[in-house]
Structures are given as structure tokens and as C-alpha cells.
Amino acid sequence: MKIKTYFEEAYNELVYKVSWPTWKELQSSALIVMIASLLIALVVFLMDISFENIMDFIYRMLY
After folding, report:
1. Half-sphere exposure (Cβ direction) of 29: Cα atoms closer than 13 Å
2. Minimal CA–CA distance to 52: which of 62, 63, 60?
3. Would you tell me which of 9, 25, 43, 51 could form a disulfide with 21, CB atoms 3.0–4.6 Å apart?
4. Rounded to whole angstroms, what are the CA distances from 60 to 29, 47, 48, 50, 54?
5. What pLDDT digit, counting tens, does each position of 17-56 carry?
6. Residue 19 carries which DSSP code?
7. Minimal CA–CA distance to 53: which of 61, 41, 39, 40?
8. pTM for the whole thing?
9. How far is CA 7 from CA 2, 15, 16, 20, in A?
10. How many Å separate Cα 13 from the centre of its chain?
11. Beta strands in the chain (DSSP E)
């Protein structure tokens, strides 16, 4: 009986209490996430290239 009540309350909350974003808001949020993801990927890429060059320089000095 508790499971049935849980699902009924969850359904009622999702249908009547949650404010869903509009299509325009959803597109705007998706665009922000895509841009942020690309910027983070670029930063990680630059860090990787920098670390690789630094380690190559150190190894060349040692040998």
C-alpha cells in the first residue's frame, strides 16, 4: 500500500506542482551547457598539452 501511495504522490507532484521550463528556456539552458562543456574541454586540452611539453622538456634535460 505504501508503494502505491508513493507513486500517486510522485505523479501528482510532477503533474501539478513542478514548474517545467518552456521550450525556449530549455534551448537556452542547453546552449549554455554546450558552451561551458566546450570551454572546459578546451582548458583540459591546453593543460594536457602543457603538461606533456613540460615533461618532455624535463626528460630531455635528464638524458
Report:
1. 7
2. 60
3. 25
4. 47, 20, 18, 15, 10
5. 999 999 999 999 999 999 999 999 999 999 999 999 999 9
6. -
7. 61
8. 0.67
9. 9, 12, 14, 19
10. 26
11. none
